[in-house]
Amino acid sequence: MTKTVRLSTAQALVRWLVAQRSELLDGTEVPMFGGVFAIFGHGNVLGLGTALREVRDQLPTWRGQTEQGMALAAVAFAKATDRRQVMVATSSVGPGALNMVTAAGVAHANRLPVLLLPGDTFTGRAPDPVLQQVEPFGDATVSVNDAFRPVSRYFDRITRPEQLLATLPQVARVLTDPADCGPVVLALPQDVQVEEFDFPLDMFTPRRNLVPRPRPDVRDLAAAAEILRTSQRPLIISGGGVRYSGAAGQLLALAGPRGVPMAETAAGRTMLPDPHPLNVGPLGTIGSAAANALAAEADVVLALGTRLQDFTTSSWSLFAPDMRLVSVNAARFDAVKHGGHAVVGDLLEAVAGLDELLAGWAAQAGWTARITAERASRDAYLDELRSGTAPDGSLTYAQVVAAVNDASGPADYVLGSSGGIPGELNGGWRSGSAAAGATMDLEYGFSCMGYELSGPWGAAMARAGSHPDGLVTALLGDGSYLMLNSELFSAAFSAHPFVAVVCDNGGYAVIHRLQTGQGALGFNNMFTDCAGPGAQPDGVRIDFAAHAASLGCAVIDVPAGASLDNLRAGYARARELAMRERRPAVVVCRTHPSAWTESDAWWEVGVPASLPGRAAYDQAKRSQLRWSN
Fold first, then answer.
1. Do the beta carbons of residue 453 and residue 397 sit within 8 Å?
2. Residue 208: beta bridge partners?
3. Which of 25-39, 90-104, 119-133, 471-485 has the lowest mean pLDDT?
4. Residue 597 resides in a domain
5. Strands laid side by side in the 61-63 sheet
6. Could you report how far apart the first and last alpha carbons of the chain are, in Å?
7. What is the model's pLDDT at position 531?
8. Any idea what DSSP says for residue 296?
9. How confident is the model at residue 624, as a pLDDT?
10. What's the mean per-residue pLDDT of the chain?
11. pTM
12. How many domains does the chain divide into?
């Protein structure tokens, strides 16, 4: 007879979470679930809240300040562990649940695992309508949690305790599957959370959930090798899949002896050492002119672990019309995009297979020589940006990146997401010479404003054990700070240190650039272009330093007109304070709103015919590749 234990639905779920184990890329066994971010309400405080308290020594629960913020921290935690560990986020029903939908979108777009447990309305319906129940008029089975469906890789509503027996194996599958990885949502009606059932004891036996490494079809791999053998000017694009499969070393072994240039996507950034002679930098709209110049002439592109989004491909205007694409991806959904030759499987296994099949082949000698020239041009441009100043002598974004980059070591980690910072960070960051694993989280799949102050909390938590001497630094603009800043207090309260460098440029400067760059007049982006008396140069402004201090952070306020040396000193001091006092340190600096790092690449946005930028738009559209199978 099967041995059982009588538990509530919430207790059984929590005990299952505790029992799950995972394995890091280096083979170290760790808990699969690193902890729980929670904001309790009437929909989860007694059921799930009581169950979590019972295991608080095995599965820590951290109090968030906003549901979106804590769920974003969970997303960043997953990326900082290379998708090998997962955080849980739970909320009550109603606005608390809906606040997590944005974070689910971030996780879905970036293929990152997170488990969301929103409370739900009563299945019994006796007290309907309850507080925070929206009551859709035409469907009584719907609650606000159905809004998660488009941004979930797996969704379930638990209406009976025994349903956990069927759904939890699927939860583990999705969270660890390299092809299906993404957010899992289990909606938990509050009456069901406390219902009891005789669960089998075997359900709570510790289980190691390994990330599978499916080998690609040998026929697809052989065809890919033949395509590459016909190439004289190949280019490799290294994406996030290279990071998650731990394939960077194998990639260098493939490209190095054959003289193949390697470019990176935002998701794959810092996997390749910057000094490597074949690393031509990031690709695309916010990439480097060196990588883009080679992409324009490549006859075969080997795309590894990337979904080839528009910022990587410059809206598909970057490549030669006769370029042939080979796309290797764990997910067939991504591999078949854009009519390329698809190879589906684990990146490490696929690259190793190609290395064996391409014995004796190398790129054209003249092509390899081009790499050196393009790299030299890129390096000279970055050096000029780092040493130069804005027209009015103020700090530039490139100088902010340089100050953080130069002070960071191999155990440190840098994070960015939205506004102008991703372009500066992606284009200007120089990774170290040693392969120490990924050192950057550039969330440019969803580009979520506010991720920059929630994400470092999760990243710092994730890296505390593996990189105890390292420090997470987030770079962001004033717009992102205003969008979502409450998790600064969460990190201070929980003693998770990081540094946040806030570039105060007077508004949404990068969107202002996009607007005026097409010939439109500035409107509603910079503070001086908005309605209200605050638009005046001496109007109401934010004291970011005072605000950050009020949330429990150490603060370094770099004054207007400060030099790069002042910024470097301020950042060094912030690092010291964060590590010594075990809390976030915020550096506030004033940056020029329109001194940008350029990549000479296009990005498609709709331009009205009435604007001067329409002519250039029409011309670029004619160079846009359109493929079909």
1. no
2. 21
3. 119-133
4. no
5. 61-63, 33-38, 86-91, 114-120, 183-189, 154-157
6. 56
7. 95
8. T
9. 87
10. 95
11. 0.97
12. 3
DSSP per position, 1-15: ---EEEEEHHHHHHH
- Please answer whether residues 105 and 529 qualify as being in contact, where contact means their C-beta atoms are separated by less than 8 angstroms: no
Give per-residue pLDDT as tens, 158-173: 999 999 999 999 999 9
**Nearest-CA neighbor of 122 among 51, 50, 49, 42?**
42
Whether residue 151 sits in one domain with residue 76: yes
308 and 203 housed in the same domain:
no
Q: Please tell me whether the peptide bond between 129 and the residue prior to it is cis, using omega within 30 degrees of 0.
A: yes
Helix intervals (H) in 486-600: 487-494, 509-517, 544-550, 564-581
Query: What are the tens digits of pLDDT across the range 222-234?
Result: 999 999 999 999 9
Q: Tokens in use for 71?
A: 């769920």
Element holding 480 (H helix, E strand): helix 478-483
Q: Is residue 43 part of a domain?
A: yes
pLDDT of 496 higher than 90: yes
Q: Which domain holds residue 23?
A: 4-208
Instruction: Report the C-alpha gap between 221 and 200 in whole angstroms.
Output: 44
* End residue of a domain, out of 208, 230, 249: 208
Regarding whether 284 and 198 lie in a shared domain, the answer is no
The CATH number of the domain holding residue 18 is 3.40.50.970
- DSSP string covering 522-563, please? P-SSBGGGSSSGGGSTTS----HHHHHHHTT-EEEEPPTT--
Q: Are residues 11 and 119 in the same domain?
A: yes
Q: What is the mean pLDDT of residues 312-335?
A: 96
Q: Do residues 284 and 302 share a domain?
A: yes
Helices 451-463, 67-80: axis angle to 10 degrees equals: 50
The answer to whether the Cα torsion of 281, 287, 290, 295 is positive or negative is positive
| Apex 385 CA angle, 384 and 387, nearest 5 | 65
How much of the chain exceeds pLDDT 70, in percent? 99
Are the CB atoms for 401 and 567 separated by under 8 Å?
Answer: no
**What pLDDT was estimated at residue 432?**
84
Distances (CA, A) of 64 to 61, 119, 553: 10, 16, 16
Same domain, 332 and 204: no
Q: Which of 11, 12, 90 is nearest to 44 (CA)?
A: 90
Among 398, 411, 397, residue whose Cα is nearest residue 473: 411
Task: Of 573, 536, 542, give the one whose Cα is nearest residue 556.
Answer: 573
In a domain, 608, yes or no: no
Mark which of 187, 208, 229 sits at the end of a domain.
208
Residue 255 corresponds to which tokens in the numbers above? 């490209």
For 400-448, the pLDDT digits (tens) are 999 999 999 999 999 999 999 999 999 999 998 765 579 999 999 999 9
Identify the pLDDT of residue 437. Answer: 79
Residues 371 and 259 in one domain: yes
Q: Are 76 and 458 within 8 A, CB to CB? A: yes
DSSP 3-state assignment of 116? strand
Angle, vertex CA 171, rays to CA 176 and CA 92, nearest 5: 125
Classify residue 13: in a domain, yes or no: yes
Q: Are residues 352 and 424 in the same domain?
A: no
CA separation for the pair 326, 227 (Å, rounded): 8
Give me the CATH number covering residue 230: 3.40.50.1220
